[in-house]
Amino acid sequence: MFKGILIEKQEDKYSAQLTELNDDQLPSGNVTVKVAYSTLNYKDALAITGRGPVVRSFPMVPGIDLAGTVESSDDPRYKPGDRVLLNGWGVGESHWGGLAQKARLSGDWLIPHPEGLDERQTMAIGTAGYTAMLCLIALERHGLKPADGPVLVTGATGGVGSFAISLLAGAGYTVTAATGKSSEAAYLKSLGATAIIDRAELSAPGRPLAKEQWAVVIDSVGSHTLANACAGTKSEGLVAACGLAQGMDFPATVAPFILRGVSLLGINSVTQPFQRRVNAWQRLADQLDLQALSVMTRTIGLEDALSAATELLDGRIRGRLIVDANN
Length: 327
What we know:
CATH class of the largest domain: Alpha Beta
Radius of gyration: 20 Å
CATH superfamily of the largest domain: Medium-chain alcohol dehydrogenases, catalytic domain
Number of helices: 10
Largest sheet: 7 strands, mixed
CATH topology of the largest domain: Quinone Oxidoreductase, Chain A, domain 1
Number of domains: 2
Structural class: alpha/beta
Order of helices and strands: EEEHEEEEHEHEHEHEHEHEHHEHE
């Protein structure tokens, strides 16, 4: 027996609770993992609360991230005792995920745990930090350099935003953070932001083109915020879109793209190729200021994740929540 958060839906009744599960209930897969840590992401919070149509089949164990140790394996790439890591691949949505003490998965979804990080640290980083690194890698593929000009990070106090600021500042970029939490100015500056703007400057309907302000944008918000960020990006600038906290609509025009040559880059953190996942995680291990993790993160237990999901969606949590699967 092991513990896990189980989401069930019967007719109009939707519930999520911590319960006892057994190995026979685990879904199909060729690697069984003892989970050490998981995380509580925005998508996980939507799944637990039922506020968004995240879960595609029931019953479901949420959790799009996990780090742990292989218990058994029919995949020749992994053997019992190996440390492994997973982000994405539909776990927590269509396949049981990481908010439990065990998970049975496809070996294709796993990567070896990166050198230089322990399981708690990788989950402190989680999909949020991984996505921020994928944004940086995509921007670099398009020639981004610190000398190109200032970078705007939206959703700055969230997980992706916090890591994006830390990574960019550490690489020598000048970062402006957009947030609705003026009380978090000291936190954002501690991560490396040099300027802070109110998210209200971007979140309402705007003009097709605005004053050119940023060479680069990393946006985890979507909707009007993304549209206004594109409108305010400099000629030949780059915008990496990786989230939809405000909404998945994009109420924009083509003006920034055809009049200024702005490039909009979509960031998919769910189904990246194996080697790109390995490279992104090793760069996180090598480049991220690990001391900043203590500022960005808080550890909770599996049962705590149920109430924390509502707090996260209501904007009452900054940074990252690590979930200790054995607490």
